[in-house]
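Hey,
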Amino acid sequence: MTSTTPDAPSATPLLDWYDRHHRDLPWRVSPPMVARGVRADPYRVWLSEVMLQQTTVQAVKPYFANFLARWPTVRDLAEAPNDDVMAAWAGLGYYARARNLKKCAEAVATQHDGVFPDTEDSLKSLPGIGDYTAAAVAAIAFNRQAAVMDGNVERVISRLYAIATPLPAGKLLMKQKVALLTPADRPGDFAQAMMDLGATICTPKRPACSLCPFRGSCEALRLHDPEQFPVKAAKKERPVRRGAAFVAVTADGEILLQRRIASGLLGGMTEVPTTAWTSRADGETSADAAPFPAQWEPCGSVIHVFTHFELRLSIYRTAIPSRIQTDDKWWEPVTNLEAQALPTIMKKAIATAIPLAFAMPKG
């Protein structure tokens, strides 16, 4: 049963709304599926929740389908070559998630005999699983009464209670409210219903309050100002960092690549040679920093916005007759670039130097 406390409205209207208006998502076991006896697969729930962090549903759908097609079980993912996993993740961003995804799969396969643990605390003992993912998997996959709070839920709960404490300081109070509201039965459906409500009804701008199952209990609606919530602290100005990237191509159509160190920003991903820029410091921006002497021609620049800084790379290109031997780099056919673990910033850099690089037919 759902319950109502002096500090929480009943979850029943929301669950009734979810039964009628839930989104059909490839990783979701919907209420009609549950009625037919289908049960959530913890692997699919976990994989989707990791992918959805800081990423839209539409962006995640093809990646989720590709991962499941290649690695249908957590054991398959655990046994996959690391380079293959990073390449499959390329373009989805926040690459530490991919590294932790692989480590977590290995831990489940080796330490838990391929079976995900079913409590928040035990899930949090796995690599890369924090409070949010542990709560989401526990609730959705195992029907545990866990308080799940993503960005959509933050918006719903902040409006429902008119929480004026700015984010991120207000998160603790919001989670306490979510915990009070989460029912003992159907906690997984409740978590997904809150997410759907925030995504489709309680939107950042022009929320459809007249359609909301919580409209009779919403404090922000009573105050006639839902869009005021959640209150956000003033943003700090995003610093700008600079560097250079070097695109070398042979007469045979091969491009020079290297792998970034395993830890840190874009860790383990593939890149063209670049200068030593970081989120805290600029790198060299001139052709003097090229990986080998050649006629390096400037061919423009690219801008890429990371979470905490903006990166501006000057792009240089050189065409050489044949490969030059390098110790820590390799030459890859341009026609094979799509199979490489290239983050978006590197695809931008290559496309600036070779405009049709990602449109060339595979050899």
